[in-house]
């Protein structure tokens, strides 16, 4: 696949440029420690793929090629919710770096990190309430519930070699795809175009969210720590069995022993990764991601939008797959 595929921001350049400034404004707080902790989260930057998806969707489905103030704010709220979830994830996973930058609990401590995450969730809820749209509040609030449920599902299946692909997909929906699906639906709910079916774009968000997570999990196995900006093999170390490893269990019995030992010996993670790479499981996991991307593409193609309006929504799909190439 073409390695030059980039996230489409040309059509939303003005809105995207204002995003970072607005994010810092939204987390401003009098308490200097809490603000510093929250600011640390945004310091690493990141591609801002979630707000790019929402801003592109808003622009593509608008009747006058514009993005409303409410839709811009929703994109910002979604990024804050996502960032808040990362703080708690990093504590649970005992991850010292993210995107090459020290994590909040590593710079401060677990207590401050938890409070920073809670603060961001609270700020996002306040700004969400100020959209004055009860239906949007309901659907976005569900994301935070899903995050918690996803973490619990992941925790209860830790180092469980009986976990199924169906359970993995369900957990991936709660932890990643729910945010994209619900925020895509909410973006359409805030649109001036009443001809767009919001549930179609809920499914669009769900499928690209699942594909993104599946590929993210593949990269955890095949990439270096430098490429990831965090330790490679972290999922395995924490007992989070992802698609590639689950598929490999069918042919590599050695993996059962390593999982039962909870990868406690120094070379166990490397042994497991080597075993997975000896099978076709990485390709099987990629094929599963491709299926979800194709479903997302089909949804866009069926919408009553012009070729130009569909372009960015399709480019997002190709970008997500291109991360693996």
Short overview:
The chain is mainly alpha-helical. It is built from 16 helices and two strands.
Write the layout of secondary structure elements.
Elements: H1 13-26, H2 32-43, H3 49-61, H4 69-93, E1 97-98, E2 101-102, H5 104-107, H6 110-129, H7 134-156, H8 165-189, H9 198-222, H10 225-228, H11 234-237, H12 243-248, H13 254-260, H14 268-277, H15 281-302, H16 307-322
Antiparallel strand pairs: 1-2
Helix pairs in contact: 1-4, 2-6, 3-4, 3-8, 3-16, 4-6, 4-7, 4-8, 6-7, 7-8, 8-9, 9-15, 9-16, 15-16
Give a description of the structure:
It is a single chain. The chain is mainly alpha-helical. It has a single domain (10-322), classed as Farnesyl Diphosphate Synthase (Orthogonal Bundle). Helices cover 71% and strands 1% of the residues. The chain is built from 16 helices and two strands. Strands 1-2 form a two-stranded antiparallel sheet. The longest helix is centred in the first third of the chain and has 25 residues, at 69-93. 40% of the residues are buried. The mean pLDDT is 88. Its cofactor is Mg(2+). GO terms for molecular function: metal ion binding; prenyltransferase activity. Keywords: Chloroplast, Isoprene biosynthesis, Magnesium, Metal-binding, Plastid, Transferase. This is Prenyl transferase.
Please describe the structure with a list of short key phrases separated by commas or semicolons.
325 residues, mainly alpha, Farnesyl Diphosphate Synthase, two-stranded antiparallel ribbon, 16 helices, 71% helix
């Amino acid at each position: 696949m073409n390695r030059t595929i980039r996230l489409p921001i040309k059509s939303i350049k003005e809105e995207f440029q204002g995003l970072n400034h607005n994010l810092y404004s939204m987390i401003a707080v009098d308490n200097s420690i809490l603000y510093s902790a929250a600011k640390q989260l945004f310091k690493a930057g990141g591609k801002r793929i979630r707000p790019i998806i929402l801003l592109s969707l808003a622009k593509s489905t608008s009747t006058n090629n514009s993005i409303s103030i409410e839709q811009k704010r929703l994109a910002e709220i979604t990024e804050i919710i996502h960032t808040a979830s990362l703080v708690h994830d990093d504590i649970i996973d005992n991850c010292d770096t993210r995107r090459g930058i020290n994590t909040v609990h590593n710079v401060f401590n677990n207590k401050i990190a938890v409070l920073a995450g809670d603060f961001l969730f609270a700020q996002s809820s306040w700004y969400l309430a100020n959209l004055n749209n009860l239906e949007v509040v309901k659907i976005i609030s569900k994301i935070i519930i899903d995050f918690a449920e996803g973490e619990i599902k992941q925790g209860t299946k830790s180092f469980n070699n009986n976990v199924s692909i169906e359970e993995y997909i369900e957990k991936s929906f709660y932890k990643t795809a729910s945010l994209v699906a619900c925020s895509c639906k909410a973006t359409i709910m805030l649109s001036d175009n009443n001809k767009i079916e919001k549930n179609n774009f809920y499914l669009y968000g769900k499928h690209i969210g699942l594909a993104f997570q599946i590929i993210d999990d593949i990269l955890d196995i095949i990439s270096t720590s430098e490429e990831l900006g965090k330790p490679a093999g972290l999922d395995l170390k924490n007992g989070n069995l992802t698609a590639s490893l689950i598929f490999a269990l069918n042919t590599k019995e050695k993996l059962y022993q390593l999982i039962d030992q909870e990868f406690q010996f120094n070379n166990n993670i490397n042994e497991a990764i080597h075993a997975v790479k000896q099978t076709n499981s990485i390709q099987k996991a990629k094929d599963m991601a491709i299926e979800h991307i194709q479903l997302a593409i089909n949804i866009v193609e069926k919408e009553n939008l012009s070729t130009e309006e569909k372009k960015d929504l399709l480019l997002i799909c190709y970008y997500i797959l291109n991360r693996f190439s």
